[in-house]
Amino acid sequence: MRIFLLLLALVAWARVSAQITIDEYRQQVLSRSLELMSAEAESEKLLSRSNQQRTNFLPALSASGEFTTAFRRNDGADLWGFSIVPRIEQTLYAGGGVRAAYRQALINYDASLDEQSQLSLEVRFAADNAYWMVSAMQLYKAATDEYVSLIRSLYDVVQERFAEGYVAKSDLLQVEARLSDAEYSQIASQNNYDLALHQFNNLRREADSISVVLTNSIIDDLPALPRATLEQIMEYRPDVAMAKKSILAAEYGVDVVQAGYNPSLTAGVSGSWKTYSPNRSGKTYLDGALVVGMNVPIFHWRERRHAVAAARRDVEQSQLALEQLYEDISLEEADGWSALLSSYSQMQSSLKNVEIASENLSISTYSYQEGQATVLDVLQAQLSWIQIYTNAISARYNYAVAWSAYRRITAAE
Predict the structure, then answer these.
(1) Which one, of 197, 127, 143, lies nearest residue 401 by Cα?
(2) Cα separation of 104 and 251, whole Å?
């Protein structure tokens, strides 16, 4: 019972002097994630490209000019001359390629937002995992510290009885060896906690040595998760939406390729301001013209057929990728739900085992003090307790991770 009170006191102290909740930690990790920053930059780039494609609907203004000078006079004309030609041009028809390219760019931008959402789910799960790991390592550390304390107390008692001649030296050596082994485990648990803390701080981009006090713990009761249907998962998963938009983008890609081999029609107005040629007086004049242009592809050795076929293969690949994603998600959900149920059952079973091991330890310790049990009995009870208790911590950690993983699989908020 004293062991449980010590561990509960550890959790209560963490809550009183709490510095960070799991929700706060998630937000820190999400706001500082370099992966998410890179994904946001990619989305901004694709938005700029869609805006660039939209400009193809608008008339374009351009100008060209030249200045010339001759090396010798020609019939008394000046050696220099210039010409400035502005031009406004509007695409009237481009085989549907302008509209298809614009819509494709918009869909790619929307898909990048879905990719951000999917990446957020992955980053959030990584944050949860790191948070639960620190919580588990804190409990491991507390358990091994308590284990060392129990064996050291027993060692003091056995040493005193050995000095009085009540026990053999072999009993003292057994306890001393077990104490040395427990201290070795204590060092390992401290190292594991340090590694978990490094990962915890690394995700939120803080110094590795910064200590934390967690508000939440793996021994907290997590809300029950109902099983989601595949239809619900497919509706909320961002990667599914992204895969569907990839199919649309590929279909518009076919239109873009086809448009490159369709007739195109442009119209424009151009003007010119230039000197007479030859330039005898230095005078200039203005001129203008209405220009209508048409381009009709006639024969390109079946280039269009091959290009369109390649673009349609992109559509097929996108469709197959979506089907594969459906199968992967179905398997992932089934595995995730099984892991959630299994870890929950193990957690419930481990709690009963801890109660039994704690009671056995108390009885063995009392019996030894009354001379009704051997040192080996107490050592075995202590070893059984630490093994069962660490199994309980593992079960709690596995359940917390499975809980977070299922929320990631189902895209739960």
Answers:
(1) 127
(2) 8
- Tens of pLDDT, residue by residue over 63-72, are 998 888 877 7
Query: By three-state DSSP, how is residue 270 classified?
Result: strand
Cα(15)–Cα(9) distance, integer angstroms: 10
């310790």: which residue's tokens? 365
In whole angstroms, what is the distance from residue 352 CA to residue 382 CA?
17
Dihedral, CA of residue 378, residue 383, residue 385 and residue 389, to nearest 10: 170
Rounded Cα gap, residues 318 and 107, in angstroms: 14
To 5 degrees, how large is the angle CA 84–CA 89–CA 92? 165
Output the DSSP codes for 334-391: HHHHHHHHHHHHHHHHHHHHHHHHHHHHHHHHHHHHTTSS-HHHHHHHHHHHHHHHHH
Could you tell me which residues are beta bridge partners of residue 65?
Answer: 84
pLDDT in tens, 267-307: 889 888 888 877 777 788 888 888 888 888 888 888 889 99
